[in-house]
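Title: Request for sanity check on UPF0056 membrane protein prediction

Description:
We are preparing a figure and want to confirm that the structure record we downloaded matches what your pipeline produces today. Could someone re-run it with the sequence below and paste the raw structure tokens into this thread? We only need the token string, no images.
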Amino acid sequence: MMTLFDNYIAFATTVFMGLLAIVNPISAIPVFMELTSHMDKKAKRNIATKSVLVAFCIILVFSVAGKLIFHVFGITLAALRVTGGILVFVIGYEMVRGDKESKPENAQLGAQPVKADQGISIAITPLAMPLLAGPGAITTSMSYSAAKDLTHLAIVIAIYAFICYITYLLFIAGERIVKVIGTNVMMVITKMMGLILAVIGVQMLALGLRELFNF
């Protein structure tokens, strides 16, 4: 019994470290702050809640029925990587450029931040998908869930739910983090993370294209 329990603990630790490294919620803070910079606290909390809930639902669905979904719709992991890479690159490029004046949609979102449905698009893309529940997180959760019993599946889902909760807390504390480290430092971090995201996007795109065309 103790051996089985130890195996579950080891499995949970492995899943937690693997998903945490791939999701990397700390790196998503600058993205969240940039996309919600024109919103009030209520709207930011709303976006944070929706983004983690959508991300959790995505991972839940793919953990339980990922292979079936891919088979039914004829979706390949390579195509998912290509799409995710393009989305990540675009967001990273916008963060590096930092031209807020050329983003009238942000101003429009900030003009009426009390409406619950405003900004839902950024909660889904890019926050939930592909940043929090991208191809890496989806494939990792699917691989951990495959060929395992229901207990292992429940562990994977519970671990990702915990990571989503951590991410939510980090999103909500984003302004306080900025106050501690300063606006200028946060701006530098934002641009650095934008560059990193752009590079990750290119890497995801290149990997997807290589798998898609077998070269």
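Thanks, this matches our download. Residues 6 and 14 are 12 Å apart (CA to CA).
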